[in-house]
Design a protein that fits this description.
Elements: E1 13-18, E2 37-40, E3 50-53, E4 59-62, E5 73-76, E6 87-92, E7 95-100, H1 118-124, E8 130-135, E9 146-152, E10 155-160, H2 162-182, E11 196-199, E12 213-221, E13 232-237, E14 251-253, E15 258-264, E16 266-278, E17 281-294, E18 298-303, E19 309-310, E20 312-314, E21 320-331, E22 338-345, E23 356-358, E24 369-379, E25 389-398, E26 405-407, E27 413-420, E28 426-435, E29 445-453, E30 455-462, E31 468-474, E32 485-487, E33 490-491, E34 497-502, E35 508-511, E36 524-525, E37 528-531, E38 534-537, E39 539-543, E40 549-551, E41 561-568, E42 571-577, E43 584-585, E44 588-590, E45 596-605, E46 616-625, E47 637-638, E48 650-651, E49 655-661, E50 669-670, E51 673-683, E52 692-700, E53 708-709, E54 711-715, E55 718-725, E56 730-739, E57 744-755
Parallel strand pairs: 1-22, 2-4, 5-29, 12-18, 17-23, 20-26, 25-30, 27-34, 36-47, 50-57
Antiparallel strand pairs: 1-6, 2-5, 3-4, 6-7, 8-10, 8-11, 9-10, 12-15, 13-14, 13-16, 16-17, 19-23, 21-22, 21-24, 24-25, 27-30, 28-29, 28-31, 31-32, 31-33, 32-40, 35-39, 37-38, 37-48, 38-44, 39-43, 41-42, 41-45, 45-46, 46-57, 49-51, 51-55, 52-53, 52-56, 54-55, 56-57
């Protein structure tokens, strides 16, 4: 399965239910064996800061958001993930939870929600240990994978390691299988004798608001048409989700066909989540009641057999499911949006995905709105001739839930020739996330897949002006997020054909670029802006030359190095080594208000083990600047590097460089002899750009010890450098350009690309 959650400050409740993912056809296979991996990142990135793990051993990559209230989740699972690779993600009352599906029924019944609170887990986990507290009666329990460090008076302290969590997760899955059959959770086995497990130091939950309450009885009918025991029903208030958003109270379990809630009067909607055990995990049946009224004690029924429409996508070329997903997004009369998503993925090319089944509806709810979204990724057969291909599909419906069989029309798709560059053979990770505008207010997501680099794919994408795609790739599977490139949101038109060069050398600093205006989408920081006397910068150091691509960053165990200097009229006013440099560069400086020449030098290096080419660069910019008031950026942009909204600034006329090595292979090499490097010179997007007046390129074959001028021709920002290079050479580039306003840029890239032997 695949999913990401975007948290908005306005979101009080959002829920995501997810399962396993597998490898795309033609790739090296998915990450890990029976392990999950989740990246929580900013609106503009997909790379994690550091991994943590869940209580079932699933890996989670957490990063501090650049924009508060905004994050993305991505999941990776192994070829035999099964039930271990099925996850549920919830956004409730401003807290994000990631819950293995086998743990879902134990919330408040042996497992405390704190164990799945990603902010709390990231803060608590240290040195490969997740500290837990175990409450019990009688003798100290022996829990698989849990190391106990102290106990007494019915309470014990201890911890889980990643290996221990995997053992605990396996035991939990066995427990869930047994308990589901008898419709009773938290009474025996792992949770006998009052065992309850929480994150160490977890705070007590705040009391719920006081309302006059009514009894709501939800009767559940299983797939055999009999009263259900063991499955789950979720309940949400349609008038204002904040009136009924307690994690423990919003979920109940059917027992002999009955689940009960105590709720304030009002309009509600509910989803019965029925599971059927299979070899590849759980088939999930989502029976939806879009709206009903509770004015007094009320009874409603949820029927698993109503969830009869299996999600299927029929493609023009043969393709097998990698994953499929279904989302419900519900606005109320007031209050926060509620979002729920279920995803399911295959356990490998020969292991079909567990099925997702949905109940179609005929009438739109009278209170608020309902949006349903279905998405899926399908891959070419593993032995198909030619370039591997992939379908990335997404469909949206408003008001009702349609039948879930989608016959794909090739003419409605865009086609992308995706090329992934990497010097030497390596293993990386790719991801493509479909996002409709409403999902920027709630949640969106997608799978990450392991891929053998260098690589080439043909990708068929759903195309619509109302749908944007977030694409990325990482060069390392040891720490997904390290190396590679991140793509800005991009929309496609039906029938459009594009070529996307991911990581094409040389790599060098690149600015932020907006490709499409997305309603409610992430704000794009200006890479150099001035408000009054405050200069702000925002760029990444290891980007390719495709507009909208930014470097994915460098994370442990790899290390990058960076330093900078900001000058005003030749005098240093800020600078130094960038602490914990990952490639993202976001300094600020205070300037004098008088007109002056600003100079910026950025020096960056990344490890050759991660990326053997373009290992170091130094870029020097100059431009004229003066104190600035009264300027306002267009909508969708921000002055602040952290992504917070602020449009009161002016874009600085910083110059930019883009490169294209003619005949460059996916391994970063060009043929020996005559070399042609195309250079595009410009300015930051939105800047008042002066005419580019000149450019020059020099080359070195000894790491920059000696240089020779290339024959450079062109004008108006478009140039070509021609020179000869010997076989096996590593080509370093030094490019300089100036504009009519006195601005300049000089960039030196060490071992920018290589020449074939």
């Amino acid at each position: 399965m695949r999913h990401h959650l975007v948290r908005s400050a306005a979101v009080a409740v959002s829920l995501t239910v997810t399962a396993a993912v597998c490898a795309a056809a033609g790739t090296a296979g998915p990450l890990g064996a029976a392990a999950a991996s989740v990246a929580t990142t900013t609106a503009g990135t997909l790379g994690p800061a550091r991994p943590v793990f869940l209580i079932n051993g699933g890996q989670v990559g957490m990063a501090v958001p650049r924009a508060p209230g905004v994050c993305i989740f991505t999941f990776d699972f192994g070829p035999r993930a099964g039930t271990t690779g099925q996850l549920q993600t919830l956004r409730v009352g401003g807290t994000t939870y990631v819950i293995p599906i086998a743990a879902e029924a134990y919330l408040g019944r042996g497992l405390d929600p704190s164990l799945f609170d990603m902010d709390a887990v990231a803060a608590a986990e240290s040195g490969g240990q997740l500290p837990v507290q175990v409450d019990y009666t009688g003798h100290l329990p022996a829990l698989p994978g849990v190391t106990i460090t102290g106990s007494g008076r019915g309470a014990a302290t201890g911890y889980l390691t990643a290996a221990g969590a995997t053992k605990f997760g396996a035991a939990l899955t066995r427990q869930f299988t047994a308990d589901h059959a008898r419709g009773s959770y938290g009474q025996d086995g792992l949770f006998a004798h009052g065992v309850s497990i929480a994150l160490a130091g977890a705070p007590t939950a705040a009391p719920a608001p006081k309302y006059a309450m009514r009894t709501l009885t939800v009767t559940g009918t299983n797939l055999a048409g009999k009263p259900d025991s063991g499955d789950i029903v979720w309940l949400f208030n349609a008038d204002n989700a904040a009136k009924f958003d307690n994690l423990g109270e919003a979920q109940s379990v059917f027992y002999h066909g009955v689940a009960k809630f105590s709720v304030p009067a009002g309009h509600y909607w509910a989803i019965g989540e029925f599971v059927k055990f299979g070899r590849q995990g759980f088939d999930e049946h989502m029976a939806v009641l879009p709206e009903f009224t509770v004015g007094k004690d009320t009874t409603v029924n949820v029927d698993a057999q109503a969830a009869s429409s299996k999600i299927q996508m029929v493609t023009p070329r043969p393709a097998g499911e990698a994953d499929v997903g279904f989302s419900l997004i519900r606005t109320g009369a007031a209050g926060p949006i509620v979002s729920l998503s279920w995803l399911s993925a295959s356990g490998g090319p020969k292991a079909p995905a567990a099925g997702l089944y949905v109940s179609p509806t005929q009438a739109s709810p009278a209170t608020g709105t309902l949006t349903s979204i279905t998405n899926g990724q399908l891959d070419s057969p593993s032995k198909a001739p030619g370039v591997p291909y992939e379908y990335d599909l997404a469909y949206q419906s408003h008001g009702i839930i349609p039948a879930q069989r989608f016959a794909v029309n090739q003419a409605s798709l865009a086609t992308e020739d995706a090329r992934f560059y990497s010097a030497g053979a390596s293993t990386g990770i790719i991801g493509r996330l479909p996002v409709f505008p409403i999902q920027y207010r709630t949640c969106y997501g997608g799978s990450l897949f392991r891929i053998s680099l260098p690589a080439r794919q043909t990708v068929y994408l759903s195309a619509s002006p109302s749908l944007s795609w977030r694409e990325s790739y990482s060069q390392s599977s040891k720490e997904f997020g390290s190396g590679g490139q991140l793509g800005a949101p991009r929309a496609f038109l039906p029938g459009e054909r594009v070529t996307e060069n991911w990581g094409a050398y040389p790599l060098h600093p690149a600015p932020d670029v907006k490709l499409v205006q997305v309603s409610g989408g992430p704000l794009v920081p200006v890479s150099a802006s001035r408000a009054g006397d405050t200069l702000r910068l925002d760029m990444t150091a290891f980007s390719d030359s495709v507009p909208g691509h930014t470097g994915g960053g460098v994370y442990p165990p790899f290390k990058a190095a960076g330093s900078y200097e900001i000058d005003q009229n030749g005098t240093k006013i800020a600078g130094g080594t960038v602490a914990r440099f990952s490639g993202l560069f976001t300094p600020t400086a205070t300037l004098s208000s008088s007109p002056s020449l600003i100079g910026l030098t950025l020096t960056a290096a990344e490890p050759g083990k991660l990326n053997p080419l373009s290992t170091a660069s130094q870029t020097v910019w100059t431009w004229q600047s003066a104190g600035e008031t009264g300027s306002t950026l267009p909508p969708g942009w921000t002055c602040l590097p952290d992504g917070l909204p602020d449009r009161a600034c002016a874009v600085q006329p910083m110059m930019t460089l883009r490169y294209g090595v003619v005949g460059l292979g996916l391994d970063g090499s060009a043929g020996a002899g005559q070399q042609v490097v195309r250079v595009s010179v410009g300015h930051l997007q939105l800047a008042a750009a002066a005419k580019v007046t000149a450019a020059a390129v020099a080359v070195s074959f000894d790491g920059g010890k000696s240089w020779q001028e290339a024959s450079t021709s062109g004008s108006g920002g478009s140039y070509a450098a021609v020179f000869s290079a010997p076989a096996g050479a590593l080509v370093s580039l030094r490019t300089s350009a100036v504009d009519a306003a006195g601005g300049s840029v000089t960039e030196t890239i060490t071992n920018a690309y290589q020449v074939a032997s």
